[in-house]
Amino acid sequence: MDHGYGSLLEGVKTMLSRTLGTDEKMQDLCGYLRRTVPHYDWVGFYMVEGDELVLGPFSGAPTEHTRIPVGTGICGQAAETQKTFVVPDVSAVGNYLACSLDVRSEIVVPIFKDGAVVGELDIDSHSPDAFDHSDREFLEEICEHVAELL
Ligand code: SME
Q: pTM for the full model?
């Protein structure tokens, strides 16, 4: 599956190079991804603060999970293990924090700065098994560009 991410990546790079503050760029990026990729239903950043992940800019329904301990939930596991997590079926995962009953699958991509995880990009989908290798590569590249802003 290829979702035409090459041209979207160019749009992302242009967006991130504009003269805006970092939070505004991250906010714009969340909205852009959610608007342009049909299976991205919630797009948001969590930033590492001490041993917690704190919700940053996001686009989608409000979530009660505004602070997540590192190690808890899919987000917390991605931060702890420093690995991208792709979850095709969230109902099959024990350590999952539900934001909405509509969410069926999720991808969480860590953002690295000087070798440490400083945040992550979290995307939920209302479709099962929505994320494949092309999403992973696209989002990992985006996170490299976001890291340069931090
Ligand atoms: N599902 C995540 C929590 C964050 S919400 O998806 C926005 C998790 O299990 O860590």
A: 0.94
